Amino acid sequence: MENTEIKKRIFSGVQPSGNLTIGNYLGSIKNWKAFEDEYEALYCVVDMHAITVRQDPATLRRRTYETLALYIASGLSPEKNTLFVQSHVPCHAELAWILNCYTMFGELSRMTQFKDKSKKYASNINAGLFTYPALMAADILLYQTDLVPVGIDQMQHIELTRDVANRFNGIYSDTFKIPEGFIPKAGAKIMSLAEPDKKMSKSDANVNASVYILDGRDDIIRKFKRAVTDSDTVVCRAEGKDGINNLMTIYTAFTGKTDAEIENEFSGKGYGDFKLAVGETVADALAPVHAEFDRLMADKAYLETVMKNGADYASYLANKTLSKVYRKVGFVQKPR
Length: 336
Ligand code: TRP
Description:
- By secondary structure, the chain is mostly helical.
- It has helices at 22-35, 47-50, 57-73, 91-100, 105-109, 112-120, 127-141, 155-172, 217-225, 242-255, 259-265, 271-297, 300-329; strands spanning 9-14, 40-45, 81-85, 147-149, 180-182.
């Protein structure tokens, strides 16, 4: 399935965490599905990025399978997209080393994710955490990527990737395509159910704040029932009604109903009815995803076939870029 047409190429990386929220589901996975036909897309489970913070090996291994299964269960077709695991394609580590030598200490020091994580993991501020963006740049640049769909928090890393690519191209002539970051707008902002002025996060300490794709039906409904709202009683979108606005956004995302339709549907009813309806709708929508996830997790052989095919194709593309880079920096080709 070589990209012989002029389809633009998309690359994105996902951390191997089984705990994706409905915000991730609506904001990334669902949008990615929409790219399927128009672009050539590669999605990489970034296990090498994951070890910049301490991981339990068995958990990391399980989550790598789970992440792959979750993306497929959510509708990303492995036939139309290249799904693979970062550590299966050694070019990522190899190019990352080279890019490390073209990325400045000062640039890396300014990365807000590094500063945040250094605070959060103060006893393990390792060099990998610091040079994380060089590995991310390698991920993207290996595939001559046009577009990188990411959350707003990753934009600074994309900017750095562009700077490093331009620097390298400036020294050695055109080698890398300069990628664009892209923030999909639909569903990008699902807020916490506990503090609706904060974004829903997969790492929120409050278990009632976030609804996970893999939460069971009862948990989903319970979390929506407990969602923080306001002291008003009318279901409508308005300034200051962050909680209700967020529930309306979620309801729209899962049903396609407009604000006016929702306001109509719940006129004369209370918040309780609305919360229950949103909870049941989300639970219903996720039921087939759960069933497919369970089926895939019970079929490791299939997941491994997907991983292998994905890694084979990714390696083929990545090697083309890497050998160009090796030649340009002056490495001697290994004699045959
Ligand atoms: N850093 C990204 C995150 O934490 C994950 C990631 C790694 C990524 N490599 C990437 C995203 C390449 C886009 C492109 O979400």
